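User: Predict the full complex structure for these chains.
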Amino acid sequence: MKKTVVLFLSLVLTISSFSQEEHKVDEGKKIPAVQLKTMDGKSVNTAELGFKGPVIFSFWATWCSPCKRELNTIHDLYIDWQAETGVNLVAVSIDDMKTASGVPVYVDGKSWEYLVLMDPNGDFKRAMGVNNVPHTFLVDTDGTIVYSHNNYAPGDEDKLYEELLKVAKKTN
Amino acid sequence: MYKKIISLCIFSISFVVFSQNNEGSLTGNIESTFQYLRADSLIGAELPPEKALMNTYMNAFYTNKGFKAGGRFESYSPHINGYPTVFSGTGIGMRYIGYVNNLVDVTIGNFYEQFGQGSLFRAYENRALGYDNAMDGMRLILRPVPGVIIKSVYGRQREAFTNGQVVVTSGIVRGIDGEIHFNEAFKCMKEKKFDLTFGGSFVSKYQKDDKDNLILPENVGSYGGRLKMRYGKLVVDAEYSIKENDPSLDNKFIFNKGHAALFNIGYSKTGFGISVSGKSVDNMSYRSNRDQKLQVDLINYLPSMNKTHTYNLVASLYPYATQLNGEIAYQTEVIYTIKKGSKLGGKYGTTLNGNFSTAYKPRQVTTGFNPLDSTGIMYSCTPFDMSSTLFWQDINFNISKKFSKSFNMILNYFDIKMNNDYSTITENATGVITSHIGVIEMGYKINKSHSLRMEVQELITNKGKGRDKGDWATVVLEYNYKSNWFVGFMDQYNYGNPIDELRIHYVIGTVGYVHESTRFTLSVGRQRAGLFCVGGVCRAVPAMNGLTLSFTQSF
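Assistant: Here is the predicted structure of the two-chain assembly.
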């Protein structure tokens, strides 16, 4: 009985604390600060990447075909997107040590110009609440997530572009 | 039970305290998989007595300035088809609290971590595999100056989740790791083209000697160093680790030391990339409980050195699992994109990709060692000295080309040899199974809202003892509507099975709905038995016939 009461009380406490938090979460989630390394071995903080414009975070892996389809499709459009909106794309690789050495091979082989971050043990993936890849987030200039999409089908890049234009318009 | 209540209270109080401050951030996700199964004697699918099965997880992570706290609820009621049997009940599977600033990062409770490439320590989670060896204890990360990271970990590993409660191992794991990136640490190296990182780890485990017939080491140490050099686009990576004598079920209680050596050389520039890797591993199974097997209680991670394939027939029929007791492996990966605008490159460029990987049994010298003496040392071996016993070989190529804005095609060929006597995957074959696989993938974007994708796959095994289930053909069709809906169809036809009755069509249909970070998938049909692998860690999935509904949500 005593245990049940304690359990109940703690649940009530939890719920009440969550409910206080609720309206703030609705205002938009910020990018969590996680220490990662770039593909070139430099340490970076995911919350302080220093980009001026909007940022697209795309979680991918060398073994994930839809992820590569998405990033290759965006690659063909990237120059235009950058010129129009000042966007930067950050490709977060969740490849673990089995496949991590293939990341620079693929990225350069495909001539991607994205900033590539390595998340071999899923720290950033966990912090961003990502279940599976591909998962793409659009972040405005304040570092707030304004749009996200889990999955990739051809045409998703058009939707992302629409959302990107909205963000860019807001800033200008 | 009380522990959980206390941790819940800590969360609640911390949320209340910090929610007054509007800088906080709450993230997390939910994943739920429901299965309703039918018996299907033809493919060997069994009907569990409950008929309906479900796995559900929810993570919630809260950060506010330096404060962090989070946890995960898990529920197995009961666990889905083929999931490890040690998962049952509903409860808290992970929880932590901590504080982080520019100098320190402290976590108390559960955490995931990796030292270097992981050959001595990796606490990791992969839900699809049922792999979760989260540490439960304390982690301290120090960043005293830019470019220097010191990590220390102390605790017990998660072994199972039974009746809604986490079961931790009896052994204790502790370790320290230091890494220095010279170009960040020293001003004079900042702008240099030559880039250098050094690292070193020490990990030790304690487990009581619980065997009467042996005198076992209760504390087993392991140590290693690593180096990463970069000059422009040329990268050289190497790691070498040694484990002190560690008699276990894996090595049949011998007293040999173990080693793991890994290297990778990579070079890439715009449109071209190559990497050559090698590894030598002997007697490196390192667990916090010496009597465990499979993926349970592993302290370190020894990845298999081969490409992770994605096409169904290539990925799940003959995948390779790391041989923890020893293997010598090499891999080369090359990718080249023929320039846009050239004759062969076309408007968008054409990408050529080749990959070769192989693994052999190490050569063990037994002369001069007496298996009956008291040292328990059975053989000697030299790093990278391999025997003639082949474990695995994979040669594969693919060409991918985008013909227009709406049409693209990928052609693939795979030649895979797998030694079923060592990396056992089937009971229907002995020796090396050789398979040849061809895959054509095509994508067609009809317009802004509609798109199609098709895969045609064919697998042929060599006749003889390694024929196994014979030849297969697979067709995959996928239709996407806007960015929200997708419909999939897959037929795997085992037309070349040596047994006539087993020439079966495994047909599965899928419907999915995606809205931003919410995703529903419903699939109905037959799934053949196979091996599901991530990073060389594999889980056997039994055949099933029925319905699977899954839901994922991120927030």
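The first strand of chain B starts at residue 25 and ends at 38.
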